[in-house]
């Protein structure tokens, strides 16, 4: 099995046990199901402060105008943050998704924020993507991440000890 979680859409929390109990075939679960699973595992959104989120938004180019969030194309949208613990150390990492027509056929910009050894949030990824999958393969305690997008080949990013870097490219 190479695929652990596929994050997208809305799902049914009752499928968690079924999906996680079968290891013979790759399984996908929705964002809502994955979030429910992560919350059950003790990773709560409240572990990331509003100040931390605001700093991440700034790095990602998100502005606030008249009480609304505005992307790089000056379109109003609602940023989506997904708090996870990728390496099992009890500290949160944050996927930030910015949706809108500004991001081409992928429809979303995907960033991943990870704290460095000095406790500073550092941006990883930061490009258009249709979604992502956390794979069962890993390096240095962090899972590999497959990036969804248009087409049939999806690149894989791997943790190198400092940042996520491209591991498997797709020929174009």
Outline the structure in words.
The chain is of the alpha+beta class and 172 residues long. 15% of the residues lie in helices and 38% in strands. The chain has one domain. It is built from 3 helices and 12 strands. The protein has a 5-stranded antiparallel beta sheet. It has a 4-stranded antiparallel beta sheet with strand order 5-6-7-8, with helices on one face. A hairpin with a 7-residue loop joins strand 10 and strand 11. It starts with a strand and ends with a strand.
Average pLDDT reading: 78
Tell me what portion of residues adopts beta-strand conformation: 35-45%
Order of helices and strands: EHHHEEEEEEEEEEE
Kindly, what is the distance between the CA atoms of the first and last residues, rounded to a whole number of angstroms?
Answer: 26 Å
Class inferred from helices and paired strands: alpha+beta
Q: If strands are numbered along the chain, what order do they take across the biggest sheet?
A: 1-9-10-11-12
Q: Work out the number of β strands.
A: 12
Q: Please describe the biggest sheet, giving its number of strands, its sense, and whether it closes into a barrel.
A: 5 strands, antiparallel
Any idea what the radius of gyration is? 16 Å
* Overall tally of structural domains: 1
Low-confidence runs (pLDDT<50, min 5 residues)?
A: 1-46
Overall geometric form: flat
Number of helices: 3
């Amino acid at each position: 099995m190479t695929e652990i979680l596929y994050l997208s859409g809305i799902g049914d929390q009752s499928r968690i046990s079924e999906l996680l109990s079968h290891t013979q075939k790759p399984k996908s679960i929705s964002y809502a199901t994955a979030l429910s699973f992560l919350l059950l595992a003790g990773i709560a959104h409240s572990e990331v402060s509003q100040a931390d989120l605001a700093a991440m938004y700034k790095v990602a180019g998100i502005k606030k105008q008249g009480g609304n969030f505005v992307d790089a194309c000056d379109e109003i949208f609602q940023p989506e943050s997904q708090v996870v613990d990728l390496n099992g150390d009890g500290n949160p990492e944050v996927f930030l998704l910015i949706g809108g027509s500004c991001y081409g056929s992928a429809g979303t910009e995907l960033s991943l924020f990870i704290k460095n050894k000095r406790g500073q949030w550092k941006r990883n990824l930061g490009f258009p993507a249709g979604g992502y999958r956390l794979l069962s393969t890993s390096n240095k305690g962090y899972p590999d991440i497959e990036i969804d997008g248009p087409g049939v080949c999806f690149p894989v990013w791997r943790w190198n000890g400092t940042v996520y870097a491209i591991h498997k490219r797709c020929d174009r």
